[in-house]
Amino acid sequence: MRTTYSYVEAVKILGGQNHPVVAAMDRLLGGALLAGSLGLWQVLDLFDAKPDFTRLFSDLVTKVTEKRRGLNRYDRTQRLHAAHSVIVVTAYFEVLRELELPFSFSAEDETLLQFGHPFEKPLPVPSAGRSHEANLVVVRTFYEELNHDLERVSTGSAAWDELSEAEKEGTLASYRVLPERAVRRYRELFRQLAVDCPEVAFWASMEDHRATRAALARLEDVLREVTAEPVRDVWLTELAAVYSAALRRPLVPSDGGQRIPVLGEAYVDPRFQLLVNTDRETVPSTAGYWAHRPERTDLYAYLAGHLTSAEAWWSPLLVLGDPGSGKSVLTEVLAARLSAAGTPVVRVELRTAQADSDVRQQIEHGLRRLLDEPVGWAAFSRATGGSVPVVVLDGLDELMQATGVSQNRYLTTIAELQRDLADKERPAAFVVTSRLSVCAGLALPPMSHVVRLLPFSDEQVRQWLRVWNEGGAPLPAEVALEYPELAEQPLLLLMLALYDAVDGALQRDHQQISRGQLYERLLERFARREVEKSPVERTEEGLDDDVEFELDRLSVVALAMFNRGVQWVTGDQVTADLAALLEVGSADRSVGARTPLSSGDLALGRFFFVQKTEAVRGDDTKLATYEFLHATFGEYLVARFVWRTLTDLLREDAAKSRRKTTVDDTELYSVLSFMALTTSKPVLDFLRELADDDRMFDLVVRLLETRDDRRVTRTAYEPVPLPDSTREAKYAANLVTLTLVLREKVYAPDLRFGVDDWRRAALFWKSRLSAAEWASFVRCVWLTRDREQHFHLSLHKGAGAEAEPEWLLMSEPYVTLDEVSLTWRDAMQPLTSVHSINDAITLVDLAATPVSRCVPVLQRLIKASLRHRESCARIGIGGDDLAILSAFAEEWVYDSTEALEAWVRLHERGFRFPATRAYLSTEELLTEIDEDVYEGRPDLLKRAKVAAAELGLEWSPTGPRRSRPGPVR
Questions:
Q1: Least confident piece of the model among 67-81, 304-318, 529-543, 799-813
Q2: Could you give the residue ranges of the DSSP H alpha helices within 2-127?
C-alpha cells in the first residue's frame, strides 16, 4: 500500500476509470491517460481543450461524500487521500487554463512528449503533525516544481521563438504567480471537501470552531461524524463498555465526605509539543531538546487528524511525559472516546504483559485480560469490518525500567508490524506511552510522530479546580498556584486538593508554613489516610506509631535512591534496605497496637507521591521499581530521616552514662556514609528548616571528633559496595556539612580542627569522594582564613549547584588549604580574573614553549580574539612564520593593530610569501591603510609607511576604503 498517490492512481481509486469523460479521453489518447504516460504539454492541451475534464473533480469527490457513511475507515481514508490528490492537480491546471497565453503547443513539439509526466508525480499529502501554513508550503513547493517543468516545456516549444520579447516576459511573469494562485484555488477546493468530510480539515491542521469540551469529548464528536456505523461485534461492544466505565470512575475512592469528580468530568486536555518526521535516529529524551519547541493546546484536533490519516498506519505515535503528567490517564480517556465513536481500540498495560513477549503477544495478552478469553490479533482485526483499530501500549518505560532490559528497537518493531499489516490491507494505528527520561537510545522509525505532554498551565489548574470545587470543598486556584511544582502535575494537584478538603488546612496555613512544613503535613496526612483504611483496631498512640512507621518506610525508599545516586530503585533493593534499616520482615519487629506488618515492597505503591512500575517475567515473577512523582518529596524524606536519626542520638546522648563520651552512631554512619549531602541543595535546605535544637551542634562535633574510633557493630545496610576508607571519608564530610547546617559560621576551634588537621582531612576526602561529590563539597563549603582562629567555614550561597570546572579549580585550594595549590592559585589569579581557566593554563604553557613549536599550543586557546592576539605576537620574531600563517589562515583580522604589526615585522625581516597561499601578503595588506584604526600607534604607522615605500606602493591613508584584494590561492 502506498503512502501517497499520483493523479492517475487517485482517479483509479475513486472509480474514475468508469467516468465517461475519462473513458472517452483515454480512448482518444490510446490508453495513455490511465497509463499515466502523458507529457506535460499533452496535459495542458487536455485541460485547455476539454473543459468537461476540469469538472471531473466535482464528480469524483461527490462519489466519496455520497458514500461517506457507508465506508469503513480503511476505504474512507484511501478515498479521501485520493480525492486530495485530485484536488492538488486540478487546482493547478484550472488556474493555468485561465491564463491567456500568446501561443499554444503543436504537433511539432513531439520531442517534449516524454518530459514532465505530471500525472505520474507523487503528490503531497497533508499531515496533522504540521501546521496549516506548513501544509500549504508543501503544496506550494509541488506547484513550483510543476512551474519549473512548465517553463522548460514552454521555452523549448516551436512557438516560443516566434514570440516577441515582451510576450516572452509577460508569459514568464504570469507563470511566476501561478503557484500562489494555485494554492488559493487548492484551498477553495480543499474546503469544499472538508465540509462533507471533516477529518480532512484535521489532516491539514485547519482551525476548528467547536465549542470547548473537556476530556477529549471533541475528538469523539469529530469521529462520530466521519465514522461508518459501528460493527456489531460482541468483542468490540464489550471493549467499548470497559473503556466507557473508566470515564465514570471517581478520581480516587470517596470516603463519604467530599464528592470526588469522575474522570470524564475532571480530565483536562493537556498542552503538548510535537515532533514530526524528524531526521533523528533516536527519541529526544532530554528536556533541553524540547525547551524551544512550540506548545500546542489542540490535542483533540491533532489526534483526529493523525488517527484518521494513513500516516498513523506506518509508524507508532509515541507519547512522552514526566511521572504524574497523565500519560496513562490520557490512554484511558482516548480509549473511551475512540471506542464510543466506533473505532476499535485495544489498550494494553505493558506492566501486566510478560517482559519477553513480542508485540503481537502483548496485544493478545491485553485482549485476554479485557475480554476474559483468548483472542488472536488476526481474528480481532478481521472482526473490525474494515475499521482501522488503534492499539494503545501504555507504559514502555515500566517495561524497560522494571526489567532493566533494553527495548531500543521496540518502536521499530511496531513499525515493521504495521507495514506487514498494511500490506495485508488490515492496517492498524499504534500509540505508545513512555516516560521522557527513560527513552535515551530508543530508535525512532521514519515518519514517526512524538508527542510530549506538558505540565498544567495556570489556566488549566483553574479549569481543573472549577470542576473539583463543585464537590463542596473549594480550593482557590490562587492558593494552589503558590505551589507550582505540585499544582502543575495533575496527580499532585489532586493530592493538594484532597489535603485541603479535610479541614481547609492549605487555605488556612499556606502563608504561615514553610515548604518543609507543607511536605511534612502532606506526607503525614496521606500516610494516616492509608493506615486508617486498615480494619485493625488501634489505640491513638498505636495509630501515631504506625503513621510514623509508614513515613519511615517512605524515607528508606528516598534514601535508597539518594545513596545509590539514581532516580528509581527496584523492589528487591527496597526490600533489602527496609530489612536493614527498619527490620521489616524480622519476627521481633512490632509497631503499634496489634498491627500486623506487611512487606514494604508491597505497601509503597499506595501513595500518590510514589510511582510503582511493574513488569512480568516469563516465569510470572513480578519485577517492580519505585520512584517519587516529584523529586522534592524524596529529598525532604532524606532530610527528615537524617534529622530523626540525629534526634534519636541526641535523646540517647542525654540518657547515657557519664562515663561514656558519646553515643553509638552506627545507624547514622550507615545512612551518611554512601553519598555526600552536598550533592543535593534541597536536602540541605530542608535540614536547615528542621534544625531547631542548639544541643545538636555539640553532638555532631563530638561525633566528628570520634569518627576514627573503631565501631563495634555495622548494620547490614549497604546500598552500594564501597571500601571502608571511602565510607569513612563521606561520613566525615557529611558531619562537617551538618555543622554548617546547624550554624551559619563555624570556627576551627569549634570543630576541634587545626590547620594541619583540616588539610589532611580535606585531602583524604578529596581522594575518596567521587568527582561529582567532591565538586559539590567544594561548591558548598566556603572556607575563610582567620588570623585569630585559623579559619572559619560557612555554606556557600550556591551550595548544591553545579560548579564550573574553572571555578572548582580556583576554589579548591581554599577548601583544602594545600600550600602548593594556594601558591599556584594566587599566581594564576591575574590571568583567571580575565580569561577562562583553560585559556589561562594555555597562556602559561605558551610562555614556556619555544616560538618554533608554538602552533599546537596556540590552537588550544579557546577565545578567538586571544588566539589572534597571541598568534600575531609570535609572527616575525624568529619562529616558523609559515606554519603560523597557514594554521590560522581563515582567522586573520587584517584591519587590526596586531595583524599590521606582525605583517610589517615580516617585511622588515625579509620574509618571502609563497605564491600560493590562503592569506594576504604584506603588500596586499598595505594596499590601503585606514589611519583612524591605528591613531593610537603613530610608531606603527611610521613603520608601515616605510614598508609601503619600499614595496613601491602609493600611500593613501585617507578616503573611503576599497575592497581589499583577496589572497592568491
A1: 799-813
A2: 7-13, 20-28, 32-35, 40-49, 51-54, 56-66, 73-97
